User: Fold these one by one.
Assistant:
Number 1:
Amino acid sequence: MDNKYIVSKFKEINMNRDEAYKLSKSKFSNKNLFKHVLAVEAVMKGLAAHFNEDEEKWGLAGLLHDLDYEQTMNDPDRHTLVTEEMLAEYSLDPEIIEAIKCHNDKAPRSKQIGKAIYAADPVTGLIVAAALMHPDKKLASLDVEFILRRFKEKRFAAGANRDQIKTCEDLELSLEEFLDISLKSMQSIHKELGL
């Protein structure tokens, strides 16, 4: 067999946003889970812009972070590890894979991107829940003060881990600053989120 063929057959594939979008969408039968990854992508891009980081890289981490969720929902210890296996054939920046693993405590949060995704993942649920309880159910109607009041209500959106959201302080952002960036980022894709 020709060595050239072997090299080309196993050549790693680069992934752009469109490919990541299609791959991610193909992995979710639940449309709300797909909206969740779009929301995390938006927040990650907003945070990247705030910190003058690579918005595409941070966005890809957000878009791909729950790729294996439906496959591992009954085996949370494998969550993100299966995603890492799925993405092995792509030549993604290793920081993307590490960040994906960070959001499920499978890698140390030593880099900004990992700290960002760890806080971004649950904040999107809090913001969506706040929008859904608002009379018009629109992100545009929300402000940071409204979300902050909901944040303080322990029973409201109980699945949105408050301690995890508060790790935004590891990014040297106050909770208010973090909520502001997150809300504005999600408002920028309100049509895709249906809110």
Number 2:
Amino acid sequence: MERRDFLRGLALLAACPLCVKTAYAAEGVHWSYEGEAGPEHWGSLSKDNSACAAGSQQSPLDIRDAIKADIPDIAIDWKSGGTILNNGHTIQVKAAPGGTLRRGDKTYDLVQYHFHAPSEHLVEGKSFPMEVHFVHKHAETGALGVFGVFLVPGAANKTFASLAAAFPQKGGEEASLDGADPSGLLPSALSYWAYEGSLTTPPCSEIVDWMVAMNPIEVDPADIKKFTALYSMNARPALVANRRYILSSS
């Protein structure tokens, strides 16, 4: 645990592009989701990415054999608005200030949220059409807490529809958002799985407390297509758990 706490202390230095950097041109060495710069090669693209290949607590995971445990409830208080960016790897929303996620005695500040297609996490081998990651950091320790929610086709979702209508079409484009409420992307119940893992993009730093919602949300299939028209595949494949426990809220 001491090693992990040390790494978390360096989180803000290593967590880009997932957490801090929002500038399209500031993401360092080129990487992608296929070919010679794809996930299987991330670790060799830069010495800063060594954890992508050598890490033992990498994410995402195939969630299976979860252990029911008395883990803290999650309380969320996010704010509407922010700015929306096409960063060349995904659509990312820089959150409006003041949004929080509280889990037990820890309170994290919402920094940004972004989307993957298909889902990065699996459940008993099953993937979902999309997954949204809400990225938080602890103001004092720099610890990261990421809350993932699966998206499936169904009834229209007001928040996702408003975001889909505003998706910047080219890498590097950014626009302001008025009124988009990220809480609209939450399921009605916040039961979740929890495990210790990593960023799912380079540099793959192992500094993330993962929380993945058990219940997906429905969004309009046409809005899913608006995302996949830009990013048809931007998901890192699921990796081995390496004796990690996945805990399940009761």
Number 3:
Amino acid sequence: MIRKILVAVDGSPLTHSVMRTALDEARCHSAELHIVHVIEAKWTDVEGMSELAIRDLEEEAASLLSSMKAEAEAQGSEATLHLLRGHPGDRIVDCAIDNGADMVVVGSLGKSHVKRMIAGSVSTFVVTHCPITTVVVKQGL
């Protein structure tokens, strides 16, 4: 039985499709919805990065989460927000486990093999490392 769904959002063009999928699943299962956004550690650990720049990243992230919560509420769903820092894949997996999620919903932008090897793929990481059922919403071609 699915009681809690964790949806990872990153502000990419795919974010609204990922949210719609998570909201559909939450309605279908009468499940609690948790929305997570991870500020990637590489952006906050840059030597010399000003506290002001970090604050801007946090404000952007909080704004994204707030708009996703409003989207959920417009569809009749309550949502719990999680703003985290670190490696996105690790933090999404940890958040899902720590909150007792029964399903994780992530997006995949369909990076090329070369880009995936260089930058990695958060969705691939989550699918590979998360012990919880994971739904991947792919970008339409």
